[in-house]
Specification:
The structure holds 2 protein chains of 2 kinds. By secondary structure, chain A is mainly α. Chain A is built from 10 helices and no strands. In chain A, helix 1 packs antiparallel against helix 2 and helix 5 runs parallel beside helix 7. Chain A is globular and about 50 Å long. The chains are: A mainly alpha, B mainly alpha.
């Protein structure tokens, strides 16, 4: 169970970071605000789950080596293009809903997270509706589909395929490090590493 | 609200706003007044938007989850302010798309402080604390703006900005009470930002000669704003054990702050688009404006 929760927290943390990369440069100001808001929720969810797993949520979030993170490769990808960003958001939200629903019975915080995710799902679904016929969006969905399957457990993949409407393929599994993740990790820990462990920030 | 008769000639209009009168979007207003409003408010919107860029790269580098959340929220507020402010400009006759295009084309201005690099996490603290403190002093002087729609949104903006200052002060406080290196990061950042901060409120032109004051777009002069900043923040800076990098800074017995003359040439050079990060930041926005044009086209076509 802890392994599953750590995967969930790492997914939320890293997608929160990736979403905040649109800060200041989203295609419209409304989306800039929306992405900041979604990123805050995701980071907040990560924190809530890290707090279940460790006394020091920051230490767990930041002080591991890149190979110790359990996030799915989908969230690690560096995608500063709107079509691929929205394809990831949409696929992630569908996968996340399936994964969270399975956790809700045993983990109370999952139900709380699920409530906030409702708005992210509406946002993702709205963009999916808008872009579904755009060739670049469709090719982004195809490209990211094996990664999306890696977000959920093998037994949940049939449901994900049915919801998304694409046949199941070989998943890009958790534990695979995307080449961009080391650079992300390096940058996200640089300030923290500049002072001895235990320093207050 | 009782209907107020807005004078329909320029001199009477001027007297009306100077007596504290306010106007609404649909009221008659002199062309010069409208042009000044657009210029002033557009620059404010641009500044909120460009103010996001010095901080954005530090969202990723924020050293704790709480700092990351606070910084993301702050930046989100700023984009939200830009959105509100551009709507006011739009009502005055200049569409948002044109404001954004003029901005990336280098035809429009934004505040001097957003043209500089953000070198360390110390800068992030100094920006959130002192740059926002300087900004809120200017913004509070807009709460009585003669253009009522702008005055109204300033209430919300000032309220949110006051949280940014608290966040900034907290970042600074954690660092000055931390390790020697953390303290040094703050002092170095203060040394870097002091010049731009002293230039921030503009040259000490008498308020009676400042068109923005004459039209009562703002309700205080540049030097009054700077004095208020020094009076409010120099004691706080010193209380934290930091040194203000100006050997001539002192408060007279009459309560007036004396300081080394800020570099007005630098201010002019920077705000006309020649700051150390101006071109890079505009190019960054331009790149994504161009790259994602298809998204706006797709949404508008729907």
């Amino acid at each position: 169970m802890n392994e599953l929760l750590l995967g969930l927290a790492d997914d939320e943390l890293v997608i929160g970071w990736r979403d905040s990369e649109w800060t200041g440069i989203a295609p419209m100001l409304e989306e800039d605000v929306a992405f900041s808001s979604i990123a805050q929720n995701e980071i907040g969810h990560a924190r809530a789950v890290y707090e279940l797993l460790a006394a020091d949520a920051d230490a767990l979030a930041f002080d591991r080596s890149p190979t110790e993170y359990r996030c799915a490769p989908l969230v690690q990808l560096h995608l500063l293009e709107w079509a691929r960003t929205i394809a990831r958001r949409w696929l992630y939200e569908v996968a996340d809903e399936i994964r969270i629903a399975a956790l809700m019975a045993e983990v109370p915080v999952a139900a709380k997270i699920n409530r906030e995710e409702t708005y992210h799902r509406m946002h993702a679904e709205m963009w999916h509706e808008r872009l579904r016929d755009e060739p670049r969006f469709r090719s982004a969905v195809t490209e990211l589909w094996p990664y999306a399957l890696g977000v959920v457990l093998p037994e949940q993949r049939g449901e994900l395929a049915a919801r998304v409407g694409i046949d199941e393929v070989d998943a890009v599994e958790r534990g695979t490090l995307d080449p961009s993740f080391r650079a992300l990790h390096e940058e996200m820990t640089m300030v923290r590493r500049s002072a001895p462990a235990g320093a207050r920030w | 609200m009782a209907a107020v008769e807005i004078p329909q000639d320029e001199q009477a209009f001027l007297e009306y706003v100077q007596a504290g009168g306010q106007v609404e979007t649909t009221d008659w207003m002199p062309d010069d007044y409208r042009a000044k409003l657009i210029k002033f408010i557009e620059m404010h919107g641009n500044s909120e938007l460009m103010g996001v860029l010095p901080e954005r790269e530090w969202i990723l580098r924020a050293p704790t989850l709480q700092r990351k959340l606070a910084l993301t929220a702050k930046v989100q507020d700023e984009v939200g302010h830009a959105q509100l402010i551009y709507r006011v400009v739009e009502d005055l006759g200049k569409p948002r798309e044109r404001c954004l295009a003029d901005l990336v084309d280098g035809k429009a201005k934004f505040h001097n402080v957003f043209h500089y690099p953000t070198k360390t996490w110390g800068d992030v603290g100094v920006i959130a604390w002192l740059v926002d403190a300087a900004a809120i002093i200017s913004q509070k002087a807009l709460l009585k703006c003669s253009y009522a729609p702008y005055a109204r949104i300033m209430k919300k903006i000032c309220w949110e900005e006051s949280f940014h200052i608290l966040h900034g002060r907290d970042v600074i406080l954690a660092m000055v009470t931390g390790t020697r290196e953390q303290f040094e990061l703050v002092q170095e950042a203060l040394d870097r930002w002091w010049g731009p901060l002293m230039q921030f409120h503009g040259n000490p032109i008498p308020r009676e000669e400042d068109p923005m004051f004459i039209w009562r777009i703002k309700s205080q002069g540049n030097e009054e704003a700077r004095q208020q900043f020094l009076e409010g923040y120099v004691p706080q800076i010193r209380e934290l054990g930091l040194t203000v990098p100006d050997p001539n800074l002192r408060r007279t017995d009459e309560g007036v702050w004396k300081y080394t003359e800020p570099d007005w040439n630098e201010l002019k050079h920077v705000v006309t688009g020649h700051g150390p990060r101006t071109e890079e930041r505009l190019a960054f926005r331009r790149r994504f404006l161009d790259q994602e044009r298809w998204v706006r086209d797709a949404v508008l076509a729907a």
